[in-house]
């Protein structure tokens, strides 16, 4: 058996794994199935693989941070082996929070047909990108995405209320999700629609993993769009993160004095994006 004959599939859904194994066999590929990460490492120690297919663990809409760390380890150790990520969510949900750094292509389970899956695999084996990035700017609709720590929800609600009173369209997690909505998927779609990412920065948000990941995605979108998107508004004396430290940021430590200026700044940024 040669390296080019073998694929490692990391998937704990046994019926689905068997379906993919049968589909890959049509391409002359032999598939080893690992239900757990420990079993995957055992296979990787003993075999060489041309392709790794990985269930991203997003089926319930809850991001699996341990799975991201596993993806990073795979990429570091096997740089020349393409990795195909499969997910039950819309592709946008799978691509959130940095997974694109470690995954070469994504495939959505709900749209999976054997011919389409084989075509994706063939493209990867031939060294061609299997998924083209979705144009993001086209989805913007002038809304403001408010990122905050759950511990700052009372202050965040005041900011959101003021923005809406001023006639601005706002999305924030405080409104909750509709029945059936996945958390990761919803946040990703709302980020891609946003013309402004308003980061409510505080000691609490500096410790929030979700806030950090939302900020990372918003910063990436800002670079791709080539215009300002991220506005940092301080709720306390905590120093703003990274490059936001040297950019002009809003001071919301005194709402009565500064909230009107914040609304004006947000509106100006929304207008530039329309």
Could you explain how this protein is built, in words?
With 274 residues, the chain is an alpha/beta fold. It folds into two domains: 3-125, Response regulator (Rossmann fold, 3-Layer(aba) Sandwich); 137-273, Rossmann fold (3-Layer(aba) Sandwich), CATH 3.40.50. Helix content is 42%, strand content 17%. The chain has ten helices and ten strands. The protein has helices spanning 14-25, 37-46, 65-77, 91-95, 114-125, 153-165, 183-193, 203-206, 209-225, 255-273, and strands at residues 6-10, 30-34, 51-55, 83-87, 105-108, 143-147, 170-171, 194-201, 230-234, 250-251. The strands form two sheets. The chain has a five-stranded parallel beta sheet, with helices on both faces. It is elongated, with a radius of gyration of 21 Å.
Question: Could you give a short description of this structure?
Answer:
The chain is an alpha/beta fold. The protein contains 10 helices and 10 strands.
Span from first to last CA? 57 Å
Q: In which order are the strands of the major sheet placed?
A: 2-1-3-4-5
SSE order:
EHEHEHEHEHEHEHEHHEEH
The pLDDT mean sits at 78
Report on the biggest sheet: 5 strands, parallel
Contiguous uncertain segments of 5+ residues: 58-63, 91-97, 129-138
Share of helical residues: 40-55%
Rg, alpha carbons? 21 Å
CATH class of the largest domain: Alpha Beta
CATH superfamily of the largest domain: Toll/interleukin-1 receptor homology (TIR) domain
Give me the CATH architecture of the largest domain, please: 3-Layer(aba) Sandwich
CATH topology of the largest domain: Rossmann fold
Tally of distinct domains? 2
Find the count of extended strands (DSSP E, 2+ residues). 10
The fraction of residues assigned to DSSP E strands is 15-25%
Structural category is alpha/beta
